[in-house]
Design goal:
Structural class: mainly alpha
Radius of gyration: 17 Å
Distance between the termini: 29 Å
Helix content: over 70%
Number of helices: 12
Number of strands: 0
């Protein structure tokens, strides 16, 4: 349903633009409308993107609940696309709750299933989540090839949804292995986010830079925060 889809996609866009509270509200509206329509494909889509909004906000329990609802519908209806995506998001939530090994295994499973559909849509986003989980498990170096793959895909497909975050995560991974290029990645992340108007990703990148170089990063954090009106 176009009304469901526009709200679902719009919820993610609102988070990126720096409106985290409105993102949740619009996502809930997408889920509500899909429920009223009793249309499984719209329900799976809405729940997937609401789970994504909660993931972006770092809300693991809510992300898992939405992902598992989407998974149940997808499994019942044979929606392999949404079943694969829901598995990745469920895996992220499991990892965020503390079971990183199980979470990473689920994410790999979901990524393989997603690839089997023939789609590369959102793969850079999913690879970013997996690289972040690996870094949290002390395996930042293992995430670098995933981030490089994701950035290459960005250039091939022009799907730049998570481009700034990919550079930031690459910087964090390089910082973990004491690589001199980390700072350049953080500056690239800030530049990309600013160009896109992605205030939430700009703030993340500025915070990463501030942890590496407080004198240069803190003014960027203050500037980014000053442009938020909610959340």
């Amino acid at each position: 349903d176009p009304g469901v889809a526009c709200r679902a996609f719009g919820a993610v866009a609102l988070w990126l633009l720096g409106h985290p509270d409105r993102a949740v509200a619009v996502g809930r509206e997408a889920a509500r409308l899909s429920h009223e329509l009793v249309q499984p494909s719209s329900q799976a889509l809405a729940l997937h993107f609401v789970a994504m909004v909660h993931q972006l906000r770092g809300e693991a329990p809510a992300a898992r609940a939405c992902a598992e609802l989407a998974l149940a519908i997808a499994a019942d209806q044979g929606f392999s696309f949404w079943q694969a995506g829901g598995t990745v998001l469920r895996g992220w939530a499991v990892a965020a709750a503390g079971d990183r090994a199980e979470g990473a295994a689920l994410m790999w499973q979901g990524l393989d299933a997603w690839q089997a559909t023939g789609s590369v849509t959102y793969r850079p986003y999913f690879l970013a989540l997996l690289a972040d989980v690996l870094a949290g498990d002390g395996r930042a170096a293992d995430g670098l090839p995933l981030l490089d793959e994701a950035l290459a895909l960005v250039e091939q497909t022009a799907e730049r949804l998570f481009e700034a975050e990919l550079y930031r995560l690459r910087g964090e991974a390089l910082r973990a292995v004491a690589h001199a290029d980390a700072e350049a990645c953080f500056h690239q992340a800030v530049a990309v986010a600013r160009r896109q108007g992605a205030r939430s990703l700009e703030l993340r990148a500025a915070l990463s830079l501030a942890r590496l170089d407080p004198a240069r990063g803190r003014p960027l954090v203050a500037d980014a925060l000053g442009r938020f009106t909610e959340g």
